[in-house]
Amino acid sequence: MSAIKHMVAEVLHHQSAEQIKETVAQEKHFIAQYADPDHHPLPPDQIHQHPRNQELGGSSRGLSVNDFILVKTLGTGTFARVWLVKVRNPAPEDADKVFALKVLRKVEVIKLKQVDHVNHERSVLADVAGHPFITTLITSFSDHDSLYMLLDYCPGGEVFSYLRKAKRFDENTARFYAAEIVLILEYLHETEGVAYRDMKPENLLLDADGHIKLVDFGFAKRLGNRETYTLCGTPEYLAPEVIQSKGHTTAVDWWALGILIYEFLTGYPPFWNQNPIEIYKQIVSKPVQFPEQPVISPEAKDIICAFCTVDRSHRLGNISGGAARVKEHPFFRGVRWDEVYYRKYRGPIIPPLRHKADSNCFDDYPDEKSGRDPYTHELEKKWEGYFKDF
């Protein structure tokens, strides 16, 4: 347990029941303001400084999972489950507010060797909290068995779902989403020095107004000017340098954006095979090829090829000028970048929502299996220190 957490635990231990109740009530009031926030986005260089974001992403002083009502599972992974939740016993004005609660089982995190990834995710999300197109980590906490991250709720569901229904997007729709992603990558790379490393339609959610929210930062890593060698990501979206274990940088995200735009416009990625090894071979040796139908504009083809350049020293986004060069590309001609950042227009797809807590844009998931492996005293003794930041 960190020194700060130890102090907090000591304070809570010596507080009366009434004082603990007051501490939790204050935290509930704090988190309520981040449910469906109507805040005007802050300029990127002011996100950290503004008073409203000062406590975002911090570790909770008194919250537990019992302070929330688990409404519905929104998604599951190998070691995590995301719930739609409401605050239990909220202030009357906060009664209809909802959140997403990501629950990570410590035993599974350890077993799957995801301890570093989980800590990177919490740390990076805390640092980028407040960006208009990135999911907001409001607070985190833990108990004996699990780690928890409380996030803003994006009721529109995955962009992936809309793409599958539509078969493909027209260029204006693809450009709208791509422009918001460019601003995300500009902020992650040039302000925070972070590589995201898992760009794909499943990790892009829509908010109530149809804007992008990037989620799942499990592979995100703070690089600065260094390289990293971990093989991670989704096969169809991996950059060649990741496959070749040459060491990779934030340039991998620009490659993935090229793949993403291609998939937006055609309905499928440019490199695909049932065998991942075959996908890797294609990525490393085969140029992007475009179908005759649907017709893709020369500007769209050009930006896809400029992103999907095997030699990253010539890859758009990674060359001199960075994201500024991306914004100047003819594919984005006419885009007013300030208006994009400040969300001046609603998205091209508006989720069919009936109320704030509507979850109809998410699939149904089976209940958790019983009989999970326990987080034993031996595991706790060895690993608990690794979870101190929660």
Short descriptors:
390 residues; alpha+beta; Transferase(Phosphotransferase), domain 1; 2 domains; 13% strand; globular
Question: Could you walk me through the main structural features you see in this protein, from its secondary elements to its overall organization?
Answer:
With 390 residues, the protein is α+β, with helices and mostly antiparallel strands. It folds into two domains: 139 residues, Phosphorylase Kinase, domain 1 (2-Layer Sandwich); 183 residues, Transferase(Phosphotransferase), domain 1, CATH 1.10.510.10. It contains 13 helices and ten strands. Strands 1-5-6-4-3-2 form a six-stranded mixed beta sheet. A two-stranded antiparallel ribbon has the order 7-10. A hairpin with a 3-residue loop joins strand 5 and strand 6. Helix 6 runs antiparallel to helix 8 and helix 8 packs antiparallel against helix 10. The longest helix is centred in the middle third of the chain and has 21 residues.
CATH topology of the largest domain: Transferase(Phosphotransferase), domain 1
Order of helices and strands: HHEEEEHHEEHHEEEEHHHHHHH
Identify the overall geometry. globular
Per DSSP E runs of 2 or more residues, the count of β-strands stands at 10
Number of domains: 2
Please compute the radius of gyration using only Cα atoms. Answer: 21 Å
Q: What is the class of the largest domain in the CATH system?
A: Mainly Alpha
Strand-residue fraction?
5-15%
Q: Strand order within the widest sheet?
A: 1-5-6-4-3-2
Tell me roughly what share of residues is in helical segments. 25-40%
CATH architectural grouping of the largest domain: Orthogonal Bundle
**Poorly predicted regions:** 1-8
Number of helices: 13
